[in-house]
Give the backbone structure.
Amino acid sequence: MGESGEKRMFEQPLSRRDALKLAGMGGLGLLLGAGGGAALAGVRSATASKPEAGGAGDVIPFYGPVQAGIVTPAQDFVCLGAFDLTAADIGEVRQLFQAWTRASARLVRGEGAGEESGNSLLPPADTGEAMGLLAAKTSITFGLGVSFFDQRYGLAAKKPKELADLPPFGGDELRPEWSGGDVVVQVCAGDPQVAFHALRNLTRIARGKAVLRWVQEGFQRTGAADPKGATPRNLMGFKDGTNNPDVSDKKTADEVVWVQPSDGPGWMAGGSYMVMRRIRMRIEVWDRTTLADQEATFGRHRVSGAPLGAHNEFDPVEPEKKDAKGKPLMPADSHVALAHMDGKVRIHRRGYSYSNGVDLKTGQLDAGLLFICYNRTPSAQFIPMQAKLGAMDALNEYIVHVGSGLYACLPGVKEGGYIGDTLF
Ligand code: HEM
């Protein structure tokens, strides 16, 4: 939509008081106009349909060679939604992805989802709850589920062979309301309201073309509680993410995460496969086990996060190491000893804790891990790893997998293009 001649609802300038309030909240560089108007970089400001250049460092660009939200350092919150398509044909699916692209590029800059018409007889283009809020490092990542490639849109021949239903794993109790979906949208942000706002507006834009199948929200500790950004702890009290591969290193990311041109299909080059597992923790049972049992279950010390028998969190994981009596320091069925896979199979974990109130059947907390990982070749990475864990992991006594999904996350989009344009 063109901007000229249109009166946007966002166009009333911020009052000086509001601007100062925002500056106080975000500590941002603030440009106060002589008339009291303000333009804030990376802030959903009343004036800014385009943000000022050189933002507040909290804007993660939407456009780029790969999608953001995959090797991007994990923000504090996730709002993950799966959609089922109701679009009549492939043309409508394409229109949806184009509209999602336009809105996403705005949302990650801290703008409203669309240009406001200013016509008070129409509903606003944006739902409004993020007005005045920072972009908060929002990333929006799109992936396609197995069912996207069924007969409906004539794309079956383009389905990657790696995008197949995951096999059943030991201990699965999967529920349809937490599984599958034609399209997954992962919104991550440093603020839960900003994350929710983005998913809500993308859902609104999808009206008539796609409906929500499920939404799952997740959290970590925030910078307010942990300004130094140590490894976050999961709801079992252990540091989680310590031995993730260093995907800031391009070579490692290419090896572990990004689909390479030689892997095929061509339209997935620069994409990645996301696995989602909603893993409920039997928290109350866990809380009654001894510290020694808990540590033996993971194979790491609780306080330091060090591998059993070692002292520091980042000491190497060496499941073959034995004590003086020849007993492995790290039990062979411990989570880390098994997931280590001889150091040869790696995935990039990017999960969040979830808490979903009380399970009314048992009166226990419904909480756990919204496990999200990215990998280049699920058949050689996530699948053999989870097969091993599902069969033998000591942790299985305390967890149950209740949701699941595998999604082909598309390559990045160039400005002017749209998400999925390599496929359509
Ligand atoms: C509720 C379920 C789970 C919990 C609470 C959990 C927790 C942990 C913890 C505390 C660690 C040690 C610290 C670290 O290196 O991050 C760890 C390591 C790891 N986990 Fe999990 N995890 C869970 C599920 C899974 C699943 C489903 C997979 C993949 C199939 C997985 C793969 C790994 C890997 C690859 C490592 C690193 C192993 C190594 O050191 O080489 N985890 N997990």
Q: What stands out?
A: Residues 1-41, 45-56 have pLDDT under 50 and may be disordered.
